[in-house]
Write a structure and sequence with these properties.
Layout (H helix, E strand, L loop, with lengths): L1 H21 L13 E2 L5 E3 L7 E4 L2 E4 L5 E5 L5 E10 L5 E8 L1 H8 L8 E7 L2 H10 L12 E4 L3 E4 L24 E8 L2 E6 L2 E10 L4 E6 L4 E11 L1
């Protein structure tokens, strides 16, 4: 009977993963079997100031200063994640890190780099591109503002096409992000070393063969005020 129960449970999870792949809108709000809200109690500060992040019910406010992250208290491996976000200033920059390595987190805590090694799911406002080109005098062709997925530090990933000119980033197939002041919806699947991102209801980018494919989940502060809400997770076998 015990082996039969394990088999049934495995089939339920397998069916959930398959359905999330073929009909993501049925799962996109992060409700149903295995989903739970991520709260202040799930996170700890790494290298931000005490007032960088504030929590009010399900609303998470970030000042953007200094550059740094908060992380989950425990590591995660296979998961689905839902997060809504909106930038409060044109050109705002932020991100969600998957599988941030414990080694890089320790380095951040000691004051060395500012951001961790892992897989970053980019959270950029459209004004960032114009500001970058104006300040640098260079064409902004190596990133987009619609949901890039890419490895940072020593983490490896094979990006899904279309790929950035440098070959490291998965560019979104569609431009679906909304502008400053508007809420955006991200649904992320990170399973067995493969990451897939849905922006506002449609799959746009991702990558496979991520190494390592376990670590902390982080929210990023990077220079501008941003708000998150409805942060929900489902951890999978």
């Amino acid at each position: 009977m015990k082996s039969a129960s394990i088999l049934v449970a495995a089939c339920v999870f397998a069916g959930a993963v398959y359905a999330a792949d073929t009909e993501p809108k049925a799962f996109i709000d992060g409700t149903g079997l295995g989903w739970r809200a991520l709260t202040k109690d799930d996170f700890t500060n790494v290298n931000c100031e005490p007032d960088t992040w504030t929590w009010t019910d399900e609303l998470i406010k970030c000042t953007g200063k200094p550059v740094g992250v908060i992380r989950t208290k425990t590591t995660v491996t296979n998961l689905e994640l839902v997060v809504q976000w909106r930038h409060l200033k044109s050109g705002g920059n932020s991100g969600v890190f998957l599988w941030a390595t414990p080694e890089s987190i320790k380095a951040l805590e000691s004051g060395k780099p500012r951001l961790p090694t892992g897989i970053e799911v980019q959270v950029l406002d459209h004004g960032y591109k114009e500001q970058y080109e104006k300040s640098s005098g260079k064409k902004a062709d190596w990133f987009t503002t619609n949901g890039d997925v890419f490895p940072t530090g020593t983490t490896k990933m094979e990006p899904f096409p279309p790929v950035s000119p440098g070959g490291d980033r998965s560019f979104p197939r569609k431009e679906l992000s909304k502008g400053v002041g508007e809420w955006n919806h991200y649904y992320v699947r990170a399973i067995n070393g493969e990451v897939r991102l849905w922006v506002n209801g449609e799959e746009v980018s991702g990558g496979r063969n991520c190494r390592p494919a376990t670590g902390y989940l982080c929210l990023e502060s990077e220079g501008a005020p941003i708000e998150f809400k409805n942060l929900r997770i489902r951890e999978l076998p």
